């Protein structure tokens, strides 16, 4: 298949090489009557194809004839070929490029058989081809001039369209940057806990602006695509992305400056947002840091208390050694600094350190309380602080054992036998009771937090108009749980209070706030962690309720505004209709008495009243449209506006004035300045 036609599969065969050979000439005569054309190389006489079917666009031949004639002339023009067409009736037609076709029989009869020879035919064709070539050159030159003008026009249109596209893309980028900047503002207001002004309007307008500019970008791209498709169809080549000139260049430069300024502002807003976020995170971490600081100071207080008790045991041990030395007569080892003095100084230093820490704790709690932060006392120590407490406790236990070893394995006080095992058992019971008391206090606080959380959830459900699930059961269970945990606290406090008098009666001195055993300490940690988790849940619920209340207040305010708008629009509609009815009635009254007035004045007044009626009708239609728009706007937000809401103030006075005017006319009166009864 070629651009000029093709050969069927059955006609694809090897032809003779040349028509000038005997075989070639014979084959030419045989194939003359076959369907299709014979293609021969004119310079060599070589066969190229048999049964070649010519392609035709449907354009008719200039000398008439059928589809075959039209195909032959079209191929001759397109391929610059010499075509001989022999019809069934014996007519011969000659086609040569752009030259005029020749009808062999008709032209030969006109010129005479002797004058119409092949040489004469060749001269004629050459002359025609020269004239055609000259005419074609002129037409081509004109076409080139027209094409150049058109190309310049298309190039100008393309450059403008591309410039507009660049401007729209820059505007779209600026709109996206403005949207990002608005989101940064929202984050900043949320971090500060403030209400963003015109939030609903901005949430709609910013995305809508971005969408509109993107649609403009798509239109500009489509315009460029249309220009390029038009150029491609005409075979014109244009230059893409040419720099803009004149006003378009100024617009592009302005759009670029605006984008850069918007990006700078966005970077500044992001920096400000990050700064506020870090500040909020610092503020939110303050309670945690304060709690850790309090736990650290309380742990140091317990360590100093244990060390002071250890120094007191050392002092008591030295006194026992003095008593033993006096009774046995054995002298004590001589030292430059008496051990009793060192023990006394150590006890005093540790007691002063404990008093200083207690004062620091009191000052710290007062400052924290002034900031509205509540901390939990006696949190179990962890990590290095617990290790330090355990170390001080071990040292104290060792010193107490040494003291009792000096006093003897048994001591008698008020007729009762006290052993080291009894003292250790009482100390262990006291430490365990204190640990249990702390656990009970944290569980009681957790129950109170759970009750407060339930009340906050109930409040949120009531705000949303939902029913509280299992309300009666919860109203009983949560207060009962708080009461029972408080009873557990009282019970644990009484159990701990019983141990100290028992030890005092036996002459045993116990130490308070000793570090709990591992199992008891784990229970303390679990109770404390559970309490902190419930407090976090309570804070989250309170925050949700606060946001819900703000949203409901905003909705209520918006509904009030919409209701006021609907009421005002309805009142203005009533006033407009009253005035329309008044104008129509005034016109009718005038027309009834028109004949008694001068002709000129009567016509002018009549026209004035008709204009007043027309204006009143127009205003009534506008007010009715505004009223329906206000009602539709309220309904679209899910609100059911009250259409019987009374009006007051200036609006009510205007309604009453319109009603009085209408009533006056109906009673046969005259409006001021109208002159019409």
From TrEMBL:
Keywords: Coiled coil. Residues 210-279, 514-626 form a coiled coil. This is DAC domain-containing protein. It comes from Chromera velia CCMP2878. Residues 1-24, 133-157, 379-424, 637-657 are annotated as: Disordered. The lineage of its organism: Eukaryota, Sar, Alveolata, Colpodellida, Chromeraceae. Residues 137-157, 384-409 have a biased composition (Basic and acidic residues).
């Amino acid at each position: 298949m070629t651009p000029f036609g093709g050969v069927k599969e059955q006609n694809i065969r090897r032809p003779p090489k040349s028509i000038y050979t005997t075989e070639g000439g014979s084959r030419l005569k045989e194939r003359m009557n076959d369907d299709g054309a014979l293609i021969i190389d004119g310079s060599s006489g070589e066969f190229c194809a048999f049964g070649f079917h010519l392609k035709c666009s449907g354009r008719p031949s200039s000398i008439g004839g059928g589809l075959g004639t039209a195909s032959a002339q079209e191929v001759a023009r397109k391929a610059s070929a010499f075509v001989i067409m022999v019809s069934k009736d014996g007519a011969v037609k000659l086609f040569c490029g752009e030259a005029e076709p020749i009808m062999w029989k008709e032209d030969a009869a006109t010129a005479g058989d002797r004058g119409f020879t092949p040489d004469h035919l060749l001269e004629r064709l050459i002359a025609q081809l020269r004239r055609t070539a000259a005419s074609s050159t002129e037409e081509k030159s004109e076409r080139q001039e027209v094409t150049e003008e058109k190309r310049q026009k298309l190039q100008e249109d393309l450059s403008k369209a591309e410039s507009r596209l660049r401007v729209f893309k820059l505007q779209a980028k600026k709109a996206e940057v403005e949207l990002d900047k608005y989101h940064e503002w929202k984050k900043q207001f949320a971090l500060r806990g403030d209400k963003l002004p015109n939030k609903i309007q901005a949430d709609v307008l910013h995305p809508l602006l971005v969408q509109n500019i993107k649609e403009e970008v798509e239109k500009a791209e489509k315009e460029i695509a249309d220009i390029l498709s038009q150029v491609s169809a005409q075979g014109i080549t244009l230059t893409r992305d040419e720099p803009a000139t004149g006003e378009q260049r100024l617009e592009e430069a302005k759009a670029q400056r605006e984008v850069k300024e918007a990006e700078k502002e966005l970077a500044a807003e992001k920096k400000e947002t990050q700064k506020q976020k870090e500040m909020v995170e610092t503020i939110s971490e303050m309670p945690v840091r304060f709690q850790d600081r309090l736990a650290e100071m309380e742990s140091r207080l317990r360590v100093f208390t244990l060390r002071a008790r250890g120094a007191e045991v050392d002092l008591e041990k030295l006194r026992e050694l003095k008593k033993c030395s006096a009774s046995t007569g054995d002298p004590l080892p001589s030292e430059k600094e008496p051990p009793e003095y060192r023990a006394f100084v150590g006890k005093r230093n540790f007691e002063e350190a404990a008093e200083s820490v207690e004062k620091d704790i009191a000052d710290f709690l007062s400052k924290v309380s002034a900031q509205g932060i509540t901390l939990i006392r006696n949190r179990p120590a962890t990590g290095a602080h617990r290790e330090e407490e355990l170390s001080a406790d071990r040292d104290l236990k060792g010193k107490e054992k040494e003291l009792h070893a000096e006093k003897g394995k048994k001591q008698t006080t008020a007729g009762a036998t006290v052993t080291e095992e009894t003292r250790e058992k009482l100390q262990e019971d006291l430490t365990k009771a204190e640990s249990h008391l702390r656990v009970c206090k944290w569980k009681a606080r957790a129950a109170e937090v759970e009750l407060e959380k339930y009340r906050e959830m109930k409040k949120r459900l009531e705000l949303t108009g939902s029913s509280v699930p299992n309300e009666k059961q919860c109203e009983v269970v949560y207060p009962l749980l708080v009461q029972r945990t408080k009873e557990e606290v009282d019970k644990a406090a009484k159990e701990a209070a019983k141990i100290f008098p028992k030890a005092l009666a036996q002459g045993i001195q116990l130490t308070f706030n000793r570090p709990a055993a591992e199992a008891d300490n784990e229970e303390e940690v679990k109770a404390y962690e559970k309490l902190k988790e419930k407090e976090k849940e309570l804070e989250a619920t309170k925050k949700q309720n606060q946001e819900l209340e703000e949203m409901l207040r905003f909705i209520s305010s918006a509904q009030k505004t919409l209701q006021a708008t609907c009421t005002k629009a309805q009142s203005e509609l009533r006033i407009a209709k009253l005035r329309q009815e008044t104008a129509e009635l005034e016109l009718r009254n005038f027309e009834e008495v028109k004949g008694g007035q001068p002709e000129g004045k009567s016509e002018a007044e009549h026209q004035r009243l008709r204009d007043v009626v027309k204006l009143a009708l127009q205003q009534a239609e506008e007010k009715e449209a505004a009223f329906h728009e206000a009602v539709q706007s309220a309904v679209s937000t899910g609100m059911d506006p009250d259409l019987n809401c009374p009006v007051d103030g200036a609006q009510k006075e205007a309604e009453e004035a319109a009603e009085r005017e209408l009533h006056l006319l109906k009673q046969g009166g005259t409006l001021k300045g109208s002159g019409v009864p």
